[in-house]
Write a structure and sequence with these properties.
Blueprint: H1 7-22, H2 26-32, E1 37-46, E2 52-63, E3 69-76, H3 81-97, E4 103-110, H4 118-131, E5 141-145, H5 151-165, H6 186-205, E6 213-217, H7 221-232, E7 236-241, E8 246-248, H8 255-265, E9 275-276, E10 289-292, E11 311-313, H9 322-330, E12 334-336, H10 338-341, H11 344-358, H12 364-389, H13 393-412
Parallel strand pairs: 3-4, 3-5, 6-7, 6-10, 10-11, 11-12
Antiparallel strand pairs: 1-2, 2-4, 7-8, 8-9
Helix pairs in contact: 1-3, 1-13, 3-13, 4-5, 6-7, 6-11, 6-12, 11-12, 12-13
Bound molecules: nicotinamide-adenine-dinucleotide.
């Protein structure tokens, strides 16, 4: 079982629930549960001490039926091929739910960027890019940032690719610096999407964000921005935790001051605008909305029973194990799955790719309006599907995604 094991098995369990309801053809079932391509590369890097280290990197293109593979690159000591494959599969379903002309991909390099210098990170990024260069490109596979990679890493990636092909290619990666063809609104897009989904869900459940109480796990790009935008809508952020600790204030945390604290101290711990909170106590807080925005496998069979929130919005990828998901569903908790809830990031990545290919750039307002329209439409389609099949939102999102990919797979036919 996937409870503490394979992340890819967890994805397969989610897939199976929806594929069974759709009575998916057995051949399509096999095609959609196998990654199209898994690339493993060795990246030698001369470290600052003169020694050579060899880093293992992966790029998985899970499915490219709807368009080029799309998905981030993760730098982390815990990266595995299993995890990268699951993340690439989730990207496939996420792009299909958001109706983007992309397939799903993901990359990862086993390394600890906290122990590497800027020069070492640049050398690793350039070598990793060169090792996978034949498989990537604006029409083939378009990477982006993920955990521990950022705009600077994308700038090195884009430059290395451009040097190899002999011209400046802006649309080979997204999440770039604005000056290099990045999109306004990309940095905030995932958190903004989470806020929009929380707002739509609250409306569906019959309450307003104004005065709603919220707990957030993880206060990085996704959690920090989602919390700030929810606070702007009148929600009260009562608890926040991260890798080092947590803070609690039943009257509401000042998210602007908390962001400034995190920018300086790299953690929410020690923030004086609330009391210290044991991270294990976050899920048990009496709140309306819980937002896991940190890592995979956080809501498990062991702690799902503590959750008092009536709405869970998955900012992170894969934060809820399949067993925990069943427990929450039985208790009537409305869970908005990752492949719908955090799709704002890849949606604005798509807008960035479109702008780069046109060489014409939109205002932040245009980006945010188009994002709002896409997310609200995806939410409505998934909610209607949940009602039609009498299933939870996760199964409904998979039904929508599998249907879209399977339909095009059938239309295109078998090349052999
Ligand atoms: P980030 O590195 O900016 O922030 C991660 C946060 O999680 C940090 O506050 C960190 O302290 C915290 N954290 C780490 N370990 C923790 C632990 N054990 N307990 C509690 N908190 C912990 O990363 P991010 O970009 O915000 O990504 C967070 C999640 O959202 C990941 O699952 C990522 O794949 C997913 N996601 C990100 C985007 C995006 O555009 N950034 C898009 C879709 C999904």
């Amino acid at each position: 079982m996937a409870e503490h094991g394979s992340v890819f098995n967890a994805m397969l369990q989610e897939f199976e629930g929806a594929a069974n309801i759709l009575n998916l053809d057995k051949g399509l079932w096999k095609m959609l549960t196998h990654p199209k391509r898994q690339i493993i590369v060795s990246c030698p890097v001369q470290m600052d001490n003169g020694e050579i280290e060899v880093f293992t990197g992966y790029r998985v293109q899970y499915n490219v039926t709807l368009g080029p593979a799309k998905g981030g690159i993760r730098y982390h000591p815990g990266v595995t091929l299993d995890e990268v494959t699951a993340l690439a599969a989730w990207m496939t379903w996420k792009c299909a739910v958001a109706q983007l002309p992309f397939g799903g991909g993901k990359g990862g390099v086993i390394c600890d960027p906290t122990k590497m210098s800027r020069r070492e990170l640049e050398a690793l990024t350039r070598r990793y890019t060169a090792e996978i260069i034949d498989a990537i490109g604006p029409d083939k596979d378009v990477p982006a940032p993920d955990v521990n990679t950022n705009e600077q890493v994308m700038a090195w990636f884009s430059d290395t690719y451009s040097m190899h092909v002999g011209h400046t290619s802006t649309s080979v990666v997204t999440g770039k610096p604005i000056e290099m063809g990045g999109s306004l609104g990309r940095r905030e897009a995932t958190g903004r999407g989470v806020m929009i989904v929380a707002r739509e869900s609250a409306q569906h459940l019959g309450f307003s964000l104004k005065g709603a109480t919220v707990a957030v796990q993880g206060f990085g790009n996704v959690g920090g921005i989602a919390a700030s935008l929810l606070a702007e809508q009148g929600a009260i952020i009562v608890g926040v935790t991260d890798w080092k600790g947590g803070v609690h204030n039943p009257k509401g945390l000042d998210t602007k001051a908390l962001l400034a604290h995190v920018a300086q101290h790299k953690t929410v711990a020690g923030f004086t605008g609330g009391d210290a909170l044991d991270p294990d106590a976050l899920f048990g807080l009496p709140v309306d909305i819980l937002i896991p925005a940190a890592l995979e496998n956080q809501i498990t069979e062991a702690n799902a029973g503590q959750i008092k929130a009536r709405l869970v919005v998955e900012g992170a990828n894969g934060p809820t194990t399949p067993a925990a998901n069943r427990l929450l569903h039985e208790r009537g908790v409305f869970v908005v799955p990752d492949i719908l809830a955090n799709g704002g990031g890849v949606t604005v990545s798509y807008f960035e790719w479109v702008q780069d290919r046109h060489g014409y750039f939109w205002t932040e307002r245009e980006v945010n309006e188009r994002l709002e329209a896409k997310i609200v439409q995806a939410f409505d389609v998934v909610l209607q599907t949940a009602r039609r099949y009498k299933v939870d939102m996760r199964t409904a999102a998979y039904i929508v995604a599998i249907n879209r990919v399977a339909t095009v797979t059938k239309m295109r036919g078998m090349y052999a």
